[in-house]
Design brief:
alpha+beta; 14-stranded antiparallel beta sheet; 4 helices; globular
């Protein structure tokens, strides 16, 4: 708990962000873990149900240029739970130790951000849909030993200064939440969620302390690319720190026809 508090104190070094509606997100108290969406829904009096056909985004028509998105990628986003999933980490030489330190010091206690540090690992792929008063999609990915890689909420939001809707991903953490805001772009047939060119108030990473002022982290950048393959799709989640790409999480998604995608 002391380390968690120190982390939020360190966060004060980042620039403050004026409040915006899309920074109103669920925040965590104590460890997160795979069951957190159920606790969140119960506290709000919402329904929450596992959806074996559910997707990260219920209808990709909410995004700009949706008609140009490859049907295979559209199916992945609208029916994510169908897909088997494995993740292979590709750490930049010399940075694997940082990943292991992060997992050891924070992720294991948080039940969140348990980044893989070696080999490729099978993951469960669970979509949960919540009802009113705050309907949304939750995505839970966990290892066979029940550790959560990510517990995240996906939705599409309008952002002042951005001509097109953005994808917002919220990660509850002890004492607050981390919010990632992405622009949506197309690179040929590849769908790209990008923070490129973002600045405070736009795409990027935000640390939102519970009951406090959000901070913008310009030194950390992410990009998610979903590509088509002969058998379906694959995805690459790339992360940069001070301009250096430190890790790529490569996801083997298959065709979305196997029941491995709905394990657990």
């Amino acid at each position: 708990m002391i380390l968690d508090g120190l982390l939020w104190i360190v966060a004060r070094a980042f620039p403050k962000v004026a409040h915006r509606p899309w920074l109103d997100v669920p925040t965590g108290e104590g460890p997160i873990g795979p069951e957190w969406p159920r606790r969140w829904a119960a506290a709000r009096g919402s329904t929450l149900a596992r959806d074996p056909e559910g997707g990260l985004i219920r209808d990709l028509s909410s995004l700009a240029r949706a008609e140009r998105i490859d049907p295979r990628i559209r199916t992945f986003y609208e029916h994510t739970a169908r897909y088997p999933m494995r993740v292979e980490p590709r750490w930049r030489a010399g940075f694997g130790w940082a990943g292991r330190a992060w997992v050891s010091v924070f992720a294991r206690r948080w039940g969140q951000f348990n980044l893989p540090t070696s080999a490729d690992a099978p993951l469960s792929n669970e979509i949960y849909a919540s009802g009113p008063p705050d309907p949304c999609q939750w995505w839970v990915r966990r290892y066979p030993d029940d550790r959560a890689l990510y517990v995240s909420r996906y939705d599409v939001v309008s952002v002042d200064g951005e001509p097109d809707p953005c994808v917002r991903i919220t990660f509850p953490v002890p004492g607050g939440a981390w919010v990632v805001l992405f622009r949506v772009a197309l690179d040929g047939s590849t769908l790209v969620l990008t923070e490129d060119g973002g600045m405070s108030g736009g795409p990027g990473l935000y640390l939102v302390p519970r009951g406090g002022t959000a901070r913008y982290v310009a030194s950390f950048r992410e990009e998610i690319r979903v590509l088509t393959t002969e058998t379906g799709c694959r995805a690459e989640h790339r992360m940069w720190f001070f301009g250096l790409r430190v890790v790529t999480l490569a996801y083997d998604l298959g065709s979305g026809t196997s029941d491995r995608g709905t394990a657990k």
